[in-house]
Amino acid sequence: MPAGFPDFRLGTVLATSFTGTLSERHGDPVERIPTPQRLVDWLEVNGLAVDSCTPAQLDLARELREAIHAAATAAAIGDALPTSAVRIINDRSIHGRAAAILTSEGHRRWRLSSPSCVEDALGVIAADAIDIISGERDGKLALCGSPTCRAAFFDTSQSRTRKWCDMNTCGNRQKKARFNATHRRR
Ligand SMILES: [Zn+2]
């Protein structure tokens, strides 16, 4: 990972890992894909390798990211989905031409129509967002309990009682804050 860049938070759900590339949305936001190259890096880590990315493609990616964030947040709290967010997600899904490939080892790979087609990768992310927002996949959208985060995440725990978008960051911080508050009171 190049120095000077914040690490990616890798989750198991593609769409919400993607919205997590802007973290601490209600605190001091951290942009984890500040340059086209960082989007290339993120896509590679997430099985959607491209060989290049233009500034315009990065803009498309960020627009999709914010649309997913808005729609997933609305879905998590039971609000109507914002029309513009729905349109952006659908546009990206329609314009993606990635194919799912089954490897001989039984794994799924994504094959993009061309190695420079960031739009194909965004189509895969948009389709993943549609899956979780529409309830097609087993799980529940919820908002992170950290007041500086409030990220929408997809809870696949059996009890559906997960509180934080990410145990290693938000979860740990909240636990520490509670621990310190308890000790101050004593
Ligand atoms: Zn969080």
Automatic annotation (TrEMBL):
What InterPro entries does its record include? ABATE, ABATE_dom_sf, Znf_CGNR
From what superkingdom does this record's organism come? Bacteria
Domain Zinc finger CGNR residues, every copy: 141-181
Cross-referenced Pfam families, in alphabetical order?
ABATE, zf-CGNR
Stated name of the protein: Zinc finger CGNR domain-containing protein
Q: Which organism is it from?
A: Nocardia cerradoensis
